[in-house]
Amino acid sequence: MQYTSQNTLLYVENLSVAYGDKTIIKDINIVEKDTVRDGSVTGQVIAVVGRSGTGKSTFFRALTGLVKPTTGKVLIADTTTDSIDDAKEVHEGDIGFVDQKYTLFRNKTVYEALQFALRNKEMSKEEKDKQILTYLKDWGLEKAKDQYPCELSGGQRQRTAIIEQIFCSGHYMVLDEPFSGLDVGNIQDVKNAFKLITESHEFNTIIYSTHDIELAVELADSIYVIGYPEIDGKKMPYGSIVKHIDMKALGIAWKEFGLEHLDIVKQIKEVMLQS
Amino acid sequence: MKNILTPFEKINKNTKLFISLGWVFVVVLTWYLSSMGERHLFPSPQQVFQGLAELYNEGLVVHIGSSLLLCFSAIIIAIIISLIFSYLSTIPLVQPVAKALSKLRYLPLTGITFYLAILISDARTMQIWVLVVFMSTYLTTSLLSMVNSIPQEEFDHARSLGCNRWEVLWEVVVKGRIDYVIDVIRQNLAIVWMMLVTVESILVAAGGLGFLIKNSDKFMNHGRIIALQIVILVVGLLIDFVLDYLRKGFFRYSKI
Ligand SMILES: Nc1ncnc2c1ncn2[C@@H]1O[C@H](COP(=O)(O)OP(=O)(O)O)[C@@H](O)[C@H]1O
Is the CB of A57 under 6 A from ligand 1? Predict the structure, then answer.
C-alpha cells in the first residue's frame, strides 16, 4: 500500500519517569509522523504491548501530561497555529485519555457529562445539543442519555468516556486497555470507534495498550513493545521500548489479518517472553 | 429450619420477618420476666408507660424540640467548618491544619468546656459551641478520609478533560461527593446525639432531653429513665433514617 510520512505528530525524546527513587520507565524515544495515503483520510493507530507492571500506564500518564516526566520531553503538533511544523510540549488536557476503568464523573448523567466536555467550545447551546444527540445516536447510547455511570454497562461507560475525550481534546487519544473486560460485540464497537476516529481527520492519532497481541497487530500501523531492557547482559529494573514494529513499512498495515500478521504476533510474543 | 443456622445462607423474606418477630418476642419476654419479682433489674412495661405519660405531661415534645434545635444548630456550624478544612486540605499549605483539627478529637471535653465558659457567657451559645468544637473534629476526620479515598483516576479524568486544579476540586471533590457528606453526618450523628444529652445535663440550661434525664436521676424513677432512653433512641434512629432517605432520594447515583 502506498503511503507517505509527513509532519511529525508525536515526538518523545529520552523520556523517563521515576516515583521517588524508583525509576519506572526510562530511555523512551518515539517519532510518529502523519501518514498520508492517496484517496483516503488516514489517521494513525499506535499500539503499545508489554507484560503487566512494565510501565505502560505510567508511560501513558506521561504521554498525556498527567505526570511530569523526570527527564526528557513529549512534543505534539501544535494545530492551533497556521504553520504546519509547530510543536508544543504536551500539557494535561491536550491528549484525550480513557483509563482502564472508563472513569466518568459519578454525579453526571451521560448527557451532562458530554455537555461538560463541550463546555469550552465556542458553539451555541443548540449546536452543542445537536452534536451530543448525534453522537449518542451514532454510538448507540440514546437510551442511556439520562443514566448515571453506576447505571451503565462497561461498554456504555467506555463509549461515553471516548466521546467525552473526542469532544474535549484535539487530535490525540490515549486508551489504556480499551479491550479488556469486553464481550465480542463491545470489542467490535471499539474497533468501529477506532475507524470512526481515524477516518474523520488526517491528524487523528490513537494510542492504545492491549494484552491481546492479535488485536494490536490487526489494528495498529505501528507497534511498540515495552519490556525490561537488557544492557550488557543484565536485565534493567525499569521499562523501556524493546522492539518497534512499523506495520506500514512492512506493507501489512490496513490489510486483512493474514499469515504475515500471524508471524508478527509470534515475533512479539517471543520478545515479550524474553524481556 | 436448619438453614437459619448456616453461615452465608440466603433466606427468603418471610423467614426474615419470622426471625425478626422471634427476636422482638424474646426481648419483650425477657423484659417481662426480669421485671417480675421483688428485686427487679428493669422497671415493668407498665411503669415505663407511666413514665412516658408523665414525661409527656411535663412537655416532652418541647424538650425534644429544644434538643433537636441544639443538635441542628451545632451540626450546621460544625459541618461548614469541617467542609472548609477538608476541601482545602487538598492544598499543601492547609493540609497540616486540617489534620491537626482532626487530631483534636482526643482532647477531653472538660478542658474545652472550661475555656469556652471563659469566652461565652450565654448558656445556650455555650452548649452549641461545645458541640461544634467536638463535632468538627470528628466530622473533619471522616471528611478527610472521604477526600483521601477518592481514586486517582477520578482526578486524572477531570484533568484530561481540561479542568484546572480548582475545577478538579470543585467537580470531583465538592460536587462529586455531596452525597458522601450527608452520609458522614449520619455516621457521626450517633456521637453527637450521645454528646448532646451529656452537654445538656452538664450545663444548667433551657431544658432538652439531657435536662430531663438529670431530673429523672434525682428521683430514682426507673420507669421514667427507661422511657426517656427509648425516646432518645427512637428520635436518633429517626434522624438517621431521614438522612439516609434524603441521600438516596436526592442523589440517584449514590450507591455507598
Ligand atoms: N504512583 C506510583 N508510585 C509508585 N510506584 C508506582 C506508581 N504507579 C505505578 N507504580 C509502579 O510502576 C510499575 C509499572 O506500573 P504500570 O505503569 O501500572 O504498569 P502496567 O500498566 O504496564 O501494568 C509497577 O511496578 C508499579 O508498582
Answer: yes
Q: Is B156 on the interface with A (CB under 8 A)?
A: yes
What residue type is A124 in one-letter code? S
A144 lines ligand 1 (CB under 6 A): no
Out of 3.40.640.10, 2.30.30.240, 3.40.50.300, 2.40.110.10, the CATH code matching A4-98+171-274 is: 3.40.50.300
Burial class (CB in 10 A: 0-12, 13-18, 19+), A182: middle
Tally of domains in chain B = 1
Read off the pTM.
0.87
CA distance A248 to chain B (A): 30
Report the alpha-carbon distance of residue A17 to residue A62 in Å, rounded. Answer: 8
- Does A92 contact B153 at a Cβ distance shorter than 8 Å? no
Interface ipTM: 0.89
Q: Give yes or no for residue B2 having a pLDDT over 70.
A: no
- CB of B157 within 8 Å of a chain A CB? The answer is yes
CA B128 to chain centre: 15
The model's pLDDT over B57-102, given as tens digits with 9 standing for 90+, comes to: 988 999 899 889 989 999 999 999 999 999 999 999 999 999 999 9
Q: Kindly state the helix (H) or strand (E) to which residue B73 belongs, with its residue range.
A: helix B60-88
What's the CA gap between B256 and B250, in Å, rounded? 14
Q: For position A186, what pLDDT does the model report?
A: 87
Give the amino acid at A273: L
Give the CA radius of gyration of chain B. 23
For residue A155, CA distances in Å to A87, A101, A196 come to 35, 11, 17
B153 touches chain A (CB under 8 A): yes
| A71 sits in which H/E element | strand A71-77
